[in-house]
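Record Bifunctional aldehyde-alcohol dehydrogenase, 383 aa.
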Amino acid sequence: MAISTFFIPPVNKIGEGCLNEAIQLVKNYGYKQALIVTDRVLNEIGIVGNVQNLLTNVGIKSAIYDGTNPNPTTINVEEGLAILHQYDCDFVISLGGGSPHDCAKGIALVAANGGDIRDYEGVDVSAKPQLPLIAINTTAGTASEMTRFCIITDVERHIKMAIVDKNVTPVLSVNDPSLMIGMPKGLTAATGMDALTHAVEAYVSTAANPITDACALKAVEMISSYLRRAVEDGSDVEAREKMAYAQFLAGMAFNNASLGYVHAMAHQLGGFYDLPHGVCNAVLLPHVQRFNAKVAASRLKDIATAMGADVANISEQEGAEACIQEIRRLARDVNIPSGLTELNVKVEDLPVLSANALKDACGFTNPIQASHEEIVAIFEEAM
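=>
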């Protein structure tokens, strides 16, 4: 077995009401001026104001950047950085889902290392740790609050840059399910399927190890048990809390085993058409796993078991097929679109999307490497 390295923030708070404890920790760290990176919706509904009040109560000043796009861009990073310099901030707080977390990572990384966010595309390009980042999560899906992954859309090239860098790991992650109660059905479903994709891709990854396997399978089991409930009734606190744990477990898995072609392909759809990341993942997931079943059938059969399917007395290939059907059933139950055509993806764009997908760092650990024609064929099947 190859050498494994396990990345995770030094401190991680999970559970209802943990935000208050986290703010006390931030005070103890001695920070003085925060840049809060968030989006307009969270600002308008008052969640940002609540966090600002908690900070004020412990003597910490804060400025806000709430311009983050659903797919954060190079422009968002520049805008946030300008506010950070204007207020001389000594740390960054990301508040929201994957979009604010990724945007904040980009801002904090450039603040410490200089240059432009485009300079850091790839794996471990930066020289020194970013400004301290406290990541407060409001969705159960991306796990960006605890990973070393940062995905930023380059508005000039229309692609999503994958920045995989130990230096973008937050110093503290906060998963308080009471902040997730108001999440709408569609977002709950999309982020939940994103978490499932993280777990599945990490489990079949060529960089999987016993630690990531344990995290991935437990995440799959919990998502299969609780996602439908969280979508059905957003105020079901137990389902929200279980999904917070599940997405964190999935994050631990992929942060260390990396991902595969589902993400490599979904990043292209997101960068090209500005589509929601979790929905792209959910649509592509069964099709990529059918391709992977050529070499990863036994692993997919394990996932079928974790999803509650009875596959004990069937072959590995049949077990892999059962896994694909379970994924489709879950996606259908939470109202994920059935194909890429519904998302207005154009067949004539598939060759360029496929070429870019093969360059995405996430695809390097897919269990089987694909040709350009094979990626195009998977996209076509997903239409």
